[in-house]
Every structure is written in structure tokens, then in C-alpha cells.
Amino acid sequence: MSNNKANDVLHSTQIVIEQALRRLGYDQDMIDLLKEPLRLLTVRIPVRMDDGTTKVFTGYRSQHNDAVGPTKGGVRFHPDVTENEVKALSIWMSLKCGIADLPYGGGKGGVICDPRNMSFREIERLSRGYVRAVSQIVGPNKDIPAPDVMTNSQIMAWMMDEYSRIREFDSPGFITGKPLVLGGSKGRETATARGVVIMIQEALRIKQIEMKDARIVIQGFGNAGSYLAKFMHEAGARVIGISDVNGALYNEEGLDIEYLLDRRDSFGNVTNLFSQTITNDQLLELDCDVLVPAAIENQITDQNASLIRASIVVEAANGPTTLEATKILSDRGVLLIPDVLASSGGVIVSYFEWVQNNQGYYWDEQEVDDKLMLMMIRGFNQVYEIHRTRKVDMRLAAYMAGVRKLAEAVRFRGWV
Ligand SMILES: NC(=O)C1=CN([C@@H]2O[C@H](COP(=O)(O)OP(=O)(O)OC[C@H]3O[C@@H](n4cnc5c(N)ncnc54)[C@H](O)[C@@H]3O)[C@@H](O)[C@H]2O)C=CC1
Ligand SMILES: O=C(O)CCC(=O)C(=O)O
Questions:
Q1: CB 96 near ligand 2, within 6 Å
Q2: What is the mean pLDDT of the chain?
Q3: From the CA of 315, which ligand is nearest?
Q4: Atom 26 of ligand 1, nearest CA residue
Q5: I want to staple 63 with a disulfide (CB 3.0 to 4.6 A). Which of 71, 93, 175, 249 is the partner?
Q6: DSSP H helical segments within 119-220, as ranges?
Q7: Could you give the CA distance from residue 81 to residue 30 in angstroms, rounded to a whole number?
Q8: Using CA atoms, how far apart are residues 51 and 154, in angstroms rounded to an integer?
């Protein structure tokens, strides 16, 4: 396979979706339906910049499938957003919702932009413009956005406010990941990391490694990566490497996580404050027990998979490992906890947020964390059991677990 195809996240997702559906006994018609989103909206968003000029941004909203319920998934602000990436991300959301047994299908949005080079007000105008542009196809019972790369609770607040203005109705359930004062859920900000911690605990148990002996390396120090570093440090593990887009930090004795958390900026950058850094490539190849990619796609490839020294890889990021690399890692006996399972903590607590918005009754953080733990462990057991009994790698097992309910819903509805 050419490198471009290998790194095309949509193409590789479609390969595994097809394998999963075939193993579950479905025919080509089901594969044809589920390997593409039902809907993809491309929008152009004019934004008045602070210097008085108007810049036109391109954005997307992809809705993979709504047979189970409304579609759900984050919105990404990043210069490398592409149509295929957003489509793949929406399919992964369907799989996450399927594994966690949420009443949703998968959706995802993205805008090609670089918020690191935009002012606060420009980001607000872009966020509001995006909602105006996609407002016809989203809504609390249609498609519910949330945060993802370089979007946060402030952006969710602007988006909710814009949607409420358009609908002339206060609509907290339109979006999740909101600030607490606007109907956000306790525990949503930390949910992705909390879910990853639970997966690491399960993986360590299987590999018979004690938490206190575990050496952890985390790529990415944003929402997912930084809270993960904090929780692993608090759990007694040694976080020996972290990174951001600019580079990586390494200390065999363990990094000063509290200091790093204090100094990171709102985009998850911290390594620029240090002179002694290593590269992201070197970080991935460090001798450690658990490697957690928590940044972007295609970080572990056929070029470096045989050099990974961790015995456990837990994918907090979406799509960090290519299919070729998945095979190399599984052949080498590395326990890989795939993204659609490992990073589902975010959408699970988003679901809790939506339920609380619908009820108008709010839970305490302990209740959120306890329910999250139950759902993550149930998901893990399901996937691990398929991996063990059907003798398939963990990614295929997760796809089989994730697509099962969706395919049944499609069948009951009589769509194929
Ligand atoms: N925020 C959430 O609730 C969820 C996030 N995820 C996934 O987790 C990953 C990270 O998301 P967030 O932490 O929310 O994003 P973020 O924007 O808060 O942080 C991203 C981090 O990755 C770093 N990074 C960016 N490009 C990089 C590169 N080429 N090499 C190394 N580091 C790089 C950034 O410097 C930053 O530290 C993404 O794949 C996202 O889709 C998955 C589930 C939920
Ligand atoms: O919280 C959500 O609804 C979606 C989170 C997300 O975008 C993801 O899991 O990739």
C-alpha cells in the first residue's frame, strides 16, 4: 500500500469496518452503507478579522449514521483538517458510541484554521459562524457537537449561545463540554483522561505490572494528555516523557508534572520553555511500559512500530496508529487499547451532560466518575473478550463490538 493510502485515515477505517462486518456475518449492502457517512456538509464561513478584512474559512460536519439515535461528536479547529479526516472521525464516533452502548450515532466537525494565530474575538466570530453555517443539520435531538482538538468549553459556550439565538430558545442540550455555569457536567473536562486511566489500569493488570512500577510516556499535553499525566502521577506511576507539537521532555526519574501543568498554555504547549528537549520521534521510542499517543493521527507507523519499546499502547488520540503499525505491534505481543475504546470517556460523560440537561437535574462528580468507570470497564471486557475468543487483534475486536448495535439498528429499520 502506498504511504499516502496507508496514512489516509478514512481508507484504513473502511478496511477495518469491512472486516468487522464480514466477521459479524453482514453482506456487502451493509458494508456499502456503513463505510461512508450518511451526510457530509461543507460550509464556507466568512469571518470579520480584527484588522477589518474578511477571511473565509472552510468547515465540515459529517454525520456517519443516525439509525441508533442523534449523531454526536466533537468539532476540531486545526490547519490540517480535511474532508476525509472528518468523515473518518465521525465513523470512529459511531464505534465509540456502539462500544459504550450510548443512544447515539457518530458525528464530527472540523474547521480549517489555526486558532493559535487568531485573537479571542476572531475565534468567537468563527465559532458563531460555524454554528450558523451548520444550524440546519444540528440540534439537541439531531446532532450534538462537543470539544476536540483546539476547541474548549469557552468555544462550546459561544456555539450554544449562537444556536440558542437562532432557535430563540435556550438550548443547553445542543452541545456538550460546556462550562459548568451553562449546564456543563462535572467531570467532562477530565473525562477523556479518566477513561484512559481506567484502560491503563486494565492493561497493567493483564500484563501483571504494578501501577507503582509503571513508566508512562505521553505524546500531547492538551486536554487529554495533561490530565492523564496528572492522574497517572497521582496514581503513583512514573511519567517519564511528555510532548507537545514543538518537542518532548524526558526524565527517567519522572517529570515534575505539577510544574508542567502550571506552565502549559491553553493549547497544551509547554516544551518551548525548556532548552533540553528531545523530538517527538525519540519520545515514541523511549523505553517505558505504557505509551499513550494523545495528540494527532498517524504517529505510530510501519516506520517506527518495530522500534516502540512499550509493552502497552493506549490510544487516547483518535487514529494515532496506522493499520500496518497495528499489525506490527500485535505480532510483537504489544497490548494495544484502540482509540474507539480508550478515548471513549469524553463522549460517555458528554452523554451524561446531555442527560442532565434533558432532566434539568445535575449529578455530583463522584456519580459521574463512578458511572464512567462502569461503562469503560464494561467496554474493555467486551472488546477483550472478542479479541480472545475470536482471535482477532484488539482494533478489529473493538470495531466488531462498536459496529454490532449500529448494524442491528440499520437492519431493524429496514435500511438494507
Ligand atoms: N478533548 C476530548 O474530549 C477528546 C479528545 N480526543 C482526542 O485526543 C487527541 C488530543 O485531543 P485534545 O487533548 O483535546 O487536544 P488539545 O488541542 O487540547 O491538545 C493537543 C496536544 O497535542 C499536541 N500536538 C499537536 N500536534 C502534535 C504533533 N504533531 N506532535 C506532537 N504533539 C502534537 C499539542 O501541542 C497539544 O499538546 C485528539 O486526537 C482528539 O481527537 C479523543 C476523545 C475526546
Ligand atoms: O464528547 C463528545 O461528544 C465527543 C468527543 C470526541 O469528539 C471524540 O471522542 O473524539
A1: yes
A2: 97
A3: 1
A4: 245
A5: 71
A6: 120-134, 153-167, 191-207
A7: 28
A8: 23
Do β-strands 335-337 and 71-72 pair in parallel, antiparallel, or remain unpaired? unpaired
Which of ligand 1's atoms lies nearest the C-alpha of 220? 22
Q: Say what the pLDDT of residue 7 is.
A: 74
Active site residue 108: yes
Last residue of a domain, one of 319, 343, 367: 343
Q: State pLDDT tens for residues 313-331.
A: 999 999 999 999 999 999 9
Question: What is the reported pLDDT for 169?
Answer: 87
**Rounded Cα distance, 282 and 259, in Å:** 23
Number of domains in the chain: 2
Confidence of residue 256 (pLDDT cuts 50, 70, 90): very high
Q: Are residues 161 and 296 in the same domain?
A: no
Binding positions for substrate are: 72, 96, 350
From 343, 368, 385, give the residue that closes a domain.
343
Among all ligands shown, which has an atom nearest to the Cα of 241?
1
Note down the domain range covering 242.
191-343
Q: Cα of 229 to ligand 1 centre, how many Å?
A: 13
Looking up residue 49, the CATH number of its domain turns out to be: 3.40.50.10860
- Do 47 and 109 lie in a common domain? yes
Closest ligand to the CA of 106? 2
So what's the pLDDT on residue 168? 87
Instruction: Find cell 473478550 and name the residue.
Output: 385
Ligand 1 centroid, distance to 125 Cα (angstroms) = 23
Q: Is the CB of 222 under 6 A from ligand 1?
A: yes
Task: Report the candidate in 143, 144, 136 with the shortest Cα–Cα distance to residue 166.
Answer: 136
pLDDT digits (tens, 9 = 90+) for 26-82: 999 999 999 999 999 999 999 999 999 999 999 999 999 999 999 999 999 999 999
What is the 342 CA–ligand 2 centroid distance (Å)? 12
Angle formed at CA 61 by CA 407 and CA 265, multiple of 5 degrees: 115
Contact 347 CB / ligand 2 (< 6 Å): yes
Are 297 and 268 part of one and the same domain?
A: yes
pLDDT digits (tens, 9 = 90+) for 151-198: 999 999 999 999 999 998 888 999 999 999 999 999 999 999 999 999
The rounded distance, in Å, linking the Cα atoms of 132 and 51 is: 23
